[in-house]
Every structure is written in C-alpha cells, then in structure tokens.
C-alpha cells in the first residue's frame, strides 16, 4: 500500500533559511547578552592623584561584528542567513491514494458529506482547506494556515478520509506515565504529529497493550516514538541503602551542601528522609552508573564518620532548646558548618533536657562552647500585669513600645492573659523589665476599672443619639466606656482615673435606674391601617408624638410585615398614649367601611359626569373614596370607602343616577331557603340560565346565616318581571316535587333542538312545564342535556326530546326549488350562508346544482325535522332576496377608508347587524354623477360646500328597504369628526410615551386619531378625530389623564424635597456597606433617594437625600445614628513594612478577611494617595479591646513575614553601565575632574576639519537603506562623521 504523500511549501515566496517556532528567523551572529561580556575599559592614566583619567573609545564602545555579506546580493540563497520578516502562514499538500480512501461509493467529491466534513475541520482548526479528486479516486487536499493548525487539520483529514488501520504495542505499565506526559500533553502532541489516535489502558486494566489507530505511516512513526520512550526508561534505575539516622546530617551537610554536591557529581537523585521522620533508609534513583556511584559515595561518608565520630551529652534547660535549634533549624545548621559536629535535640514532647553532640573528637569541645553560647544568648522573663493594663503598657499608637525598641533593641514583648513575657539579650531584657514594671505600677496606683451589668435594651438610651451621652462622659471625666457583649454577658466597662470612674459609674447607674422605671408596651394594629395612622406627610403621628414627647412610638416598616406598634416611655405617658392611639384606630376603622355597588356598565359615564363633575361632587359632599373599574374592565362594581353613614349616602346617590336614566327596578321574592340549592342548580347552572334568558338581570340570594327568605332581583323592569315569574314557578315546582333527568344528543343537533330564538325548546317547556338546560362552554361533557321539574313533566319532556333526537339521527333526503338567479347569493363567500343554515338546522347537508347546469332544484340530506327547518330558512332568505332593493349613500371618497376600518371590520359589523350588502365604488371612477351635488341631497358629513358628486363617492346598500335605511344611517354615523382639546403641554410627552407607544395604544383603544402639535410651538391644543361616539370617549379619557397628571405633579413636588447631610468622607464606605447593602436598605426603608458625592464635586462631605420631607428627615436621622455609632469606635494606626502588606492580605484577601471576622474590626491599608505620605501605615478600627487584639495578631504576623521573607530577600543586581566601568577603572574613587575619551569619531573629525558639521543624512554608511527587493544599493561616496567603517 502506498503511504499518503505530503508536500510542504511556504505561504509566501520569500525564503526562510533558518526558521524559528514563532515564525521569525534566527540570526547566526549573536550579540553579547550582557555588558559583562564587554572588555573592561583600560585607562591610559598613569600615576596617582587627581589627574583626569583617559579611556580608549574602542574599549568603551566596542565595534559590532563585521558584516561579511554586505556585498552579497539579498537574493543569493547560498550566502549566510539573513533575517527577514516572513509570513507565519504555511501551505501543505496532502495526497490520499484511491486504494487508501475510506469509501469511493459517494456523491461527487467536494459536495455533500465530504464538503460538510471539510467545513467542520476548518471550523475546529482554523485552517483553510481546498479539495480535489482524481480519476483514480485519489484525493488531494491543499491546507493553508499556521503550523499548529496544519498539523491538527492534517490529522483530522486523514482520520475522516483515509482508511484507518490499528496496531497493538506491548509496553510495561510502569512506562505509561512517561508516554502520557504531564496532564497527557506528550501523548496529545504525539497524536498531533503522527495523525494517529493512541489509546493507553487505565492502571486498573489487565492489558499491557497500547493501541495505535491511523494511517500505516502514522502508526509506524507513533510506534517508533513510544518504543524509544520506553527504551529510555529501561536505562533508568533506583537503589536503597541503610544508613543510621544519626549519620544523616553528615551526608546532607549544612543547608544541604553535601547532598547537592553529591547529586551534581553523580547525576543521581538522592532522597534522604527529613529530620523529623525516623527512617534510616536512603533512596537513590537515576542512571544505573550514576546510582552505583552515588551509593558508593554515601556509604563511604557513613563508614568514615562511623570511625571518626564521638559523642558528648550536655544538660540545657528545656526553654532554652529553641535558641539552640534556631528558626527552622538554622542554628543547628550553623553549628554543623562551623564545627563539623551534629547536634541532636530531644523531641518537643519529651521532658528530657539532654542535648547530644556527635562528631570528630577534636571538634566536640568547640561545638560544646557554641551550644552554650546559643542557649544563653537569649533571656526570658515574665512580668505580672493585669490584662486591663496591657493597652496602657503599649501606649497610645504604640508609643511605649517604640520607646522600648529604641532603648532596648532586640527584645521581644509578648502580652499574655495576666502577664507580659520578655525575650532577648539578657542586658536589654533586664532594662526593659525595669521600664515596664514602672509603667504597670503607676497605672495600678492611679487607674482602675468597674464592670456594670446592664440590660441590652438600655444600650441605645445610655449611648444617646449619635453617642452624645457616652461622649460627654468621656470628655468630662477622661474615662473610657466600652460595651461588652461576650458569651452571653452584657456589661459596660469603665476605665480611667479612679475619681472619674467613680463619677461615671454614679451617672450611668442613675440613667439605668430611670430606664428600669420606664414601660414598654406593644399595640397590635392591623398593618393596613399603619399608613392611615401616620397620616399625610406624617401629620397624625406627629400630633401624638408632640402630645407625648417622652414616649417613643415605633411603627414597623412595610417590609417588616408585622402588626405590632411599640410604645416606650414613662408608665403614665405610655398608658395615655396607648388610649389615644386606640381611639385614633377606632376612628380610622369607622371611616374605612367598604361597600360594593353594582351599576350597569353603560351608566358609569353618567356617574362620572362631564369632566368628572358628578363623581367629584359625590366624593366631596359625602367625604368618601369612590373607585370605578377601568374602561377596559368588564367588572361593573363601584367600590365606596368611608364612614358607614357616608358610604350608604354615596351608594344611594349613585343608584339614584342609574334609576333616573333607566327603568332599573329592584324587587324581592319570598322563597323558602330550603329550595335555594335546587333553584341555583349544580354549579349555578340553573340560576345562570335564568339570568341569561332574562336580559342579564342580577339575582341575589341571602347568606345562609341570615335565614332570610327574600331573594333580590335587579334590572330592567320587564326582565325583572320575567325572572320573578320563573323563580316563583320554580319555587312552586320544588314545593310539589323536584326531579332531574338527563338526555344525550350530538352537539351539532343542539341548535336545532333549541330552535331559532329558542322557539323549539320554549314550545316543549310550555307543553310540559319542565326546565331544560343545555351544556355551557365550561362543561366538559357537551352532549348531556339536563331536564328539571316534576317527575311527570320531566318524563314528558324527555320523551319529546328523545323523539326529536331520534328523528335527527335518522338521515333522509329532500328537495327545494330555488330560482337559479339566487344561487350565487347562497354559495358566495365560500358558502358562508349555507354553513350558517347547516349549523342552525342540526348539521343538514345542502347541495346546490353546479354552475351552468340550468337546474333550480336544491338537494338537502339529514334528519327529517332538520330538513324541514332548512327548507323554511331557505324560503325566508329567498323571500328576502325577492324583496331586496338598492339605495345610494353619498359620502366623499376620501372618508371611505375610515368608514371601512382596519381590514373592513367596521363595514362588516354593519352588514352583519342589518343583514345587508354594501358595495364601495372604485376609487379611480372620478366621473361626475348628473343631478347630484354634495350639500344638497343628503347633507352628509355636515358639508355645506357645493361640489359635484363623483362615481367614487356613491356607496350602494342592498337589502330590505327598512334594513337598508338603518344601515345607511349606521354608515353616516361612522363619518369622522374632528375636535380640539386643551391639554397642558407638559403632559404631551406622557401621552406620546416611549417611541409613541402610549399614543398608539390610546388611538387603538378608542379608535380615534390624535394629532399633537410640534414641540417647538409648545401649544396646548390637541386634535382628536374619529366617529362622534369614539371622540367623546377619547375626550373623557384625556380629561381623566389631565386630572391624574395634575395630582401626580403635586405629588412629585412633595417628593422633590432635598436635604443635605454633612458626613466625614471616611464614613461614606460604611454608609454604603458591602455591595451597597446599607445604603440600599436606607433607601428602601425610608422611600428616598440617597446620593453620595461624585469625585469631581467640590465638597466631598455632603450626602444628598431626596424624597418626602418627613421621610428625608427620618433617613437623615438614621444616617446620623450610624455615623454616631462609627464615631464611638476606637482607631489605631500601626507601622507594618509595605513590602509584606500583600502577604498579610493573602490570596484574594482571605487572610485579612479572617482577621477582620475573628476580631470584629475593620482594617484599612494605605491607598495610592496615602502611600505617598506613609506607605507602612495600617489603620485598625473597632472596639478598643478588639483593636488591641487585632493589632497584636497583625504585628505577630508582620514579624514572622519580616523574618522569613524580607531577611532572605536577595539584593537587587545593579545594572552594569559605562559609568560603572569608569568607576571600576578609577579604583572606585570619585574623580571630580571627569574623564577623557581618546580616538573618538568627533576627535578625528576635528583633526580633519575645524568646523564641525551635522551628520549627513545622505550618507549610506551613517543611514543605510533597508531594501527587500534584493537589489544591492550602491554606496554613496560620502565620508561619514563617525569615521571610516570598521
């Protein structure tokens, strides 16, 4: 089998002699990588003293390597490599022979599935692919892209189009990890390079075979690479040797020096167990020869030390052991390096104090001396100091500790529970001990503290508004007052001078005694009444608060969702306030009586009155709130709210309006309550059918609790009488008997059973006295007909219905004669009239003769009764057609579109309502009609101008004469009118809405056209055009919008109250809270907008609050209360090296966040602006004790980081410059006279010409020309200012 052939060429025609991986070329002559490779300049200065040194120009500025290819043309590929800018795009040609293709039984190559596969590969790899097919079924692919894209595309193409083979290679499992590489990168790269798929078994699999799938060539390449990797692993080895643990330090050496040296010499990896791991075995791995050499060297060191070593033991106090060990064992390593002796320490959990020294006999004495020196180099003492004195020992902002550091350096001070521990140089420790003891004695004599147990509910009263009470005591008595809430203890701690603490304790105790005499009371008030209790702008609640100034009234916010109102204050005032509050609630409840009044929808506009005059008058005179349903709402109920007597009066007045405008009456019928359920029927079917039959009257049954026998009927007088008769009839039937039966009939026969206008079903009801109920749209079973009444009546009705249903089910045929001239009327509009007759007559089938058949017989097929009903209906329609006439209506053609409406729905309503046909003229028929002039005939549209009537103005109506006249009037009523309405210009934008959405909705809803004046005119006049009825409705809606707008504008003015609060900028972040939680809660609780200053605002302290005045003031008080709490917090600034701030903060702030959470403080690191003044300053804010604890933790962390990080930080390398060479050449002395450079180009030029000229830009040597054309540029014979070329 012939392997796939792959050709490769560059994407551009420019050659690349030496290509790098990144697409650039490598320059063969490299420059020195650093100044260190430049020869040190040699000074020609001789002798000593202040003589000016002279340096050679060639030494200071060495020449670049000679360009030996300057004269060679750029296009000469035989010359040395020349760096060029080339394209990273490459091209590969991949050839797949026909016998190696997967399948040749497909559509024309390059189309269908093959095209889709290539497009998918292009999408996945980014390479461009062109495909071609040979006559021998071979495939050729042209692939363009970057090198990595080409490899990926090539592999995917071969997998998709080339026949795939597979091979299994046996490799030991321990070599799998090497073949896989880190995270499987090596095997993926191998797959990419060989265009194969390599499957390596899991560790748990029993198979030792690696499966390679792909082309034959790719499989061979992959197998070769895998076997080569496996062969390399066979060369590697590992060995173990046992060396007693006590000799491991000599093998490792100080700071791993010996171990590193052994590994470098042998090339093997030596793994010595850590000091804390009690193992003697040392593991060596690497090449076999290297492992053997390393093992021999390790055993040689062990044998040598075993012969030379002696031991000596010394007793050292256990606390001093850590000074012998040193930080991370550094001191032990130091002793080993200085003396060659290993120091063996007892375990930390062992009580033993014996330290063993092991090493050569001659070095043990020196090592013993060093151990004693290290053990006694640090002294540790403890000073008794009560915990409350610790902060005074530290001093404000750590001033005492700073002084201690200056006077007693290298002394570590650690504050414990009731003592202070000092460690350091013995002399300095004694000095520090004396200094601190004096401070502690002074504070114990002059200062004291007391702890008072206080109910937590008194805290806010003790602190006062914005901390006023506590701050006053602190300023006057020079004491510190802290509230402690720890482990269920609620204490107030007072510290300071003894007299001040005593006085503060007395004042606080008086305040607590007073608070204990106060009373707290909860009043349960329905949350729906809370807003009424507060009153408009808080007037009502403010009146009560002014009356009882010592009582605090807390009304829950709407978000709290509770009914409890809290009162707190002196007992007597709280009781009086409670009574007044309940009295106010009672008044509000009395004025919140609600009643619903059903008013027929058509009378709502008369209740409102012109411009809302009627409803406004009723509201004002009865002091009630009256809510009407929205215009599009089908609900007819008007809701009245207020005092009971006022509500009843408003109800009477509204009902009076309805009664005056119609014959609406209300009657009561006495029916025994025991018959209510049977009269109402299952699911209210029976009573609903009665209300529907009787014109939609309202029938209201009394509640079951009232035990009343009066049923109320309300509606038009005739309908009420009809419903009354049916109810009494039903009641009489129930008194005699109540019987129910069901009959099933197909749904399409129901209309036939009911008959036109209910004639058939009414006939059965009158004959039998039974009530027949057909299923409604909501019923699931559409075929069940329910019969209710006396048993005999029900049985008779059931027999009659079953007889009719039986006839409907028996299909027969019939004929009716219809004049052919009327056939077109029946079959027009896709047989709309025939479908309607069929539905009305029980689904009868009606067939008219085909056009041109010259027959007048119409065939009917269906139940006999249905056929007779259909015949009668067809005869009625034919009679109407015979009696039809046509009349003309003159309406100008420009108004025809308005009359027709969208998609002709208006004119369709007219034709359906009056059963007529309306034909509009062709608008292009502009010929005048003789004898007719607009303004003289019909007076249409109210026009008085005399203009001739055109053919396109004449609308023809066909039908019975009386229906034609009614339809004509309906069309005239559709002629639009235009009226003007004054609407405030400010409201125009609201009417228009976003992108005109509101005005389009308004016009669609009221079926009118609204024209608003241009904005530059600022006119109040709006034009409304449409039918008179619709224009009237639109005017009422606009008037209501004006009223709402005026009310909203007044409300906006009230909401625009602005209040400014002056708050220190440092508290702004706390007011915002985490992710804006605090400020968002303030905004939500008080329904205000709170704005913080922007960066460019002149006054960064001002916070602006916008909203209702009362709510803005409440929000201001809440902000000031938060600020007051923040001002009581203790603040302290400590110094921590800015280089370790990031270590203290931790990854994503985790470390510092844990400290903040643990110690309940806020920690601020310097910002970019603050860092210019003091980059090391770290601020801690919180309660004083918490601040102290956090401070200790931070300083301890800082000390550890300084010791472990800063001390080991390597010094930054100094850049090597010409100045450095000059300084080195002059022996490091600072020569004030400068230096001289000899043989510089400018010196040579001066020798040639006295006048120094600027460099010549035409010189090819000074300013060479870069040319990619490959044509050599002739050198211009101009002398360079820099001298002859090197």
Automatic annotation (TrEMBL):
One of its GO terms (molecular function) is mRNA binding. Keywords: Coiled coil, Cytoplasm, Repeat, RNA-binding. Pfam families: KH_1 (PF00013), KH_Vigilin (PF24668). It is found in: Cytoplasm. The keyword Repeat applies. One of its GO terms (biological process) is regulation of gene expression. PROSITE patterns: KH_TYPE_1. Residues 97-114 have a biased composition (Basic and acidic residues). Residues 32-44 have a biased composition (Low complexity). Residues 163-231, 235-303, 308-376, 377-441, 446-513, 517-586, 591-659, 663-732, 737-806, 810-879, 883-976, 977-1043, 1055-1124, 1128-1199 form the K Homology domain. Residues 640-667, 787-814 form a coiled coil. The keyword Oxidoreductase does not apply. Residues 1-54, 89-114, 1243-1286 are annotated as: Disordered. Residues 9-31, 1248-1261 have a biased composition (Polar residues). This is Vigilin. It comes from Drosophila lebanonensis (Fruit fly).
């Amino acid at each position: 089998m012939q392997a796939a052939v792959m050709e490769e060429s560059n994407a551009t025609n420019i050659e690349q002699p030496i290509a790098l991986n990144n697409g650039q070329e490598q320059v063969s002559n490299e420059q020195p990588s650093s100044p260190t490779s430049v020869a040190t300049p040699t000074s020609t200065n001789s002798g000593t003293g202040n003589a000016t040194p002279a340096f050679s120009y060639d030494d200071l500025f060495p020449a670049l390597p000679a360009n030996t290819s300057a004269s060679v043309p750029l296009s000469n590929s035989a010359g040395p490599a020349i760096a060029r800018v080339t394209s990273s795009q490459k091209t590969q040609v991949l050839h797949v022979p026909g016998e190696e293709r997967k399948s040749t039984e497909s559509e024309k190559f390059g189309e269908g599935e093959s095209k889709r596969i290539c497009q998918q590969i292009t999408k996945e790899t980014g390479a461009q692919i062109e495909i071609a097919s040979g006559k021998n079924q071979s495939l050729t692919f042209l692939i363009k892209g970057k090198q990595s894209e080409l490899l990926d595309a090539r592999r995917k193409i071969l997998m998709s189009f080339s026949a795939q083979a597979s091979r299994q290679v046996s490799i030991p499992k321990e070599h799998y990890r090497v073949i896989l590489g880190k995270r499987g990168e090596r095997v993926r790269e191998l797959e990419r390079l060989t265009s194969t798929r390599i499957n390596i078994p899991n560790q748990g699999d029993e198979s030792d075979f690696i499966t390679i799938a792909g082309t034959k060539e790719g499989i061979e390449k992959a197998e070769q690479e895998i076997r080569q990797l496996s062969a390399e692993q066979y060369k590697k080895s590992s060995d173990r040797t046992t060396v007693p643990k006590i000799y491991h330090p000599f093998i490792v050496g100080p700071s791993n020096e010996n171990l590193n040296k052994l590994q470098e010499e042998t090339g093997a990896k030596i793994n010595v167990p850590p000091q804390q791991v009690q193992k003697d075995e040392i593991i060596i791995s690497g090449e076999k020869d290297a492992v053997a050499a390393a093992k021999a060297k390790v055993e040689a060191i062990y044998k040598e030390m075993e012969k030379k070593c002696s031991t000596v033991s010394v007793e050292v106090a256990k606390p001093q052991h850590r000074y012998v060990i040193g930080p991370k064992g550094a001191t032990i390593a130091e002793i080993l390096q200085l003396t060659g002796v290993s120091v063996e320490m007892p375990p930390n959990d062992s009580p033993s104090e014996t330290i063993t020294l092991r090493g050569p006999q001659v070095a043990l004495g020196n090592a013993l001396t060093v151990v004693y020196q290290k053990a006694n180099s640090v002294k540790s003492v403890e000073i008794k100091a009560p915990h409350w004195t610790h902060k005074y020992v530290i001093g404000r902002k750590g001033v005492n500790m700073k002084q201690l550091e200056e006077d007693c350096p290298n002394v570590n001070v650690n504050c414990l529970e009731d003592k202070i521990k000092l460690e350091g140089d013995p002399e300095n420790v004694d000095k520090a001990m004396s200094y601190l003891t004096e401070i502690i004695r002074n504070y114990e004599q002059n200062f004291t503290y007391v702890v008072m147990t206080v109910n937590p509910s008194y805290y806010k009263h003790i602190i006062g508004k914005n901390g006023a009470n506590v701050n006053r005591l602190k300023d006057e008595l020079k004491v510190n007052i802290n509230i402690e809430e720890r482990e269920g203890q609620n204490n107030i701690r007072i510290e300071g001078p003894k007299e001040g603490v005593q006085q503060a304790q007395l004042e606080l105790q008086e305040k607590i005694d007073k608070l204990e005499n106060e009373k707290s009371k909860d009043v349960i008030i329905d949350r729906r009444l809370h807003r009424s209790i507060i009153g408009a702008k808080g007037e009502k609640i403010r009146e009560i608060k002014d009356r009882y100034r010592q009582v605090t009234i807390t009304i829950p916010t709407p978000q709290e969702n509770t009914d409890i109102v809290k009162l707190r204050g002196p007992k007597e005032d709280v009781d009086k306030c409670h009574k007044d509050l309940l009295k106010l609630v009672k008044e509000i409840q009395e004025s919140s009586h609600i009643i619903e009044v059903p008013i027929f929808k058509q009378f709502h506009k008369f209740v409102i009155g012109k411009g809302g005059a009627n409803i406004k008058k009723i509201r004002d005179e009865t002091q009630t709130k009256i809510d009407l349903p929205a215009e599009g709402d089908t609900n007819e109920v008007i809701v009245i709210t207020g005092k009971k007597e006022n509500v009843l009066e408003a109800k009477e007045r509204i009902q009076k309006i309805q009664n005056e405008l119609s014959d609406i009456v209300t009657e009561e019928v006495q029916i025994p309550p025991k018959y209510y359920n049977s009269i109402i029927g299952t699911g209210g079917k029976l009573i609903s059918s009665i209300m529907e039959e009787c014109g939609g009257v309202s029938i209201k049954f009394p509640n079951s609790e009232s035990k009343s026998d009066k049923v109320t009927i309300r509606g038009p007088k005739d309908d009420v009488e009809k419903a009354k008769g049916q109810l009494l009839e039903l009641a009489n039937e129930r008194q005699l008997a109540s019987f129910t039966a069901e009959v099933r009939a197909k749904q399409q026969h129901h209309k036939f059973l009911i008959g036109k206008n209910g004639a058939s079903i009414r006939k059965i009801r009158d004959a039998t006295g039974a009530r027949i109920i057909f299923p409604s749209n909501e019923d699931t079973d559409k075929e069940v007909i329910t019969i209710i009444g006396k048993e005999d009546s029900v049985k008779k009705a059931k027999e009659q219905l079953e007889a009719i249903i039986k006839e409907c089910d028996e299909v027969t045929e019939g004929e009716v004669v219809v004049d052919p001239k009327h056939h077109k009327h029946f079959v027009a509009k896709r047989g709309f009239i025939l479908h309607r007759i069929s539905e009305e007559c029980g689904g009868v089938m009606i067939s008219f003769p085909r056009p041109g058949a010259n027959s007048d017989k119409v065939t009917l097929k269906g139940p006999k009764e249905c056929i007779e009903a259909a015949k009668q209906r067809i005869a009625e329609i034919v009679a109407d057609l015979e009696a039809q006439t046509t009349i003309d209506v003159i309406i100008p053609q420009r108004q025809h579109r308005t009359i027709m409406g969208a998609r002709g729905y208006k004119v369709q309503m007219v034709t359906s309502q009056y059963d007529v046909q309306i034909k509009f003229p062709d608008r292009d028929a502009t010929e005048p009609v003789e004898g007719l002039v607009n303004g003289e005939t019909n007076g249409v549209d109210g026009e008085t101008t005399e203009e001739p009537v055109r053919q396109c103005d004449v609308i023809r109506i066909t039908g019975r004469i009386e229906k034609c006249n009614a339809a004509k009037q309906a069309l005239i009523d559709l002629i639009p009118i235009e009226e003007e309405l004054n609407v405030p210009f400010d409201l125009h934008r609201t009417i228009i809405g976003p992108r005109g959405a509101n005005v389009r909705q308004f016009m669609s809803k009221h079926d009118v056209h609204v024209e608003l004046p241009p904005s530059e005119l600022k006119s109040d006049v709006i034009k409304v055009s449409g039918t008179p009825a619709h224009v009237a409705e639109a005017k009422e809606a606009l008037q209501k919008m004006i009223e709402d707008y005026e009310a909203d504008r007044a409300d906006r003015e009230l909401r625009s109250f602005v209040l400014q609060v002056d708050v220190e900028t440092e508290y702004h972040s706390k007011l915002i809270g985490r992710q804006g939680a605090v400020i968002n809660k303030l905004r939500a609780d008080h329904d205000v907008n709170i704005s913080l200053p922007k960066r460019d605002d002149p006054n960064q302290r001002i916070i602006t609050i916008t909203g209702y005045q009362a709510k803005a003031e409440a929000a201001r008080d809440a902000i000031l209360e938060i600020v007051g709490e923040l001002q009581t917090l203790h603040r302290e600034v400590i110094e921590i090296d800015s280089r370790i701030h990031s270590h203290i903060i931790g990854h994503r702030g985790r470390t510092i966040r844990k400290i903040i959470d643990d110690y309940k403080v806020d920690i601020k690191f310097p910002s970019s602006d603050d860092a210019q003044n003091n980059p090391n300053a770290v601020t801690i804010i919180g309660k004083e004790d918490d601040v102290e604890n956090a401070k200790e933790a931070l300083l301890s962390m800082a000390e550890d980081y300084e010791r472990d990080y800063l001390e080991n930080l390597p010094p930054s390398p100094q850049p090597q410059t010409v100045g450095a060479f000059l300084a080195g050449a002059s022996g490091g002395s600072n020569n004030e006279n400068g230096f001289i450079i000899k043989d510089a180009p400018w010196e040579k030029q001066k020798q040639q010409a006295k006048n120094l000229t600027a460099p010549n830009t035409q010189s090819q040597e000074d300013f060479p020309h870069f040319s990619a054309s490959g044509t050599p540029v002739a050198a211009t014979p101009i002398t360079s200012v820099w001298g002859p070329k090197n």
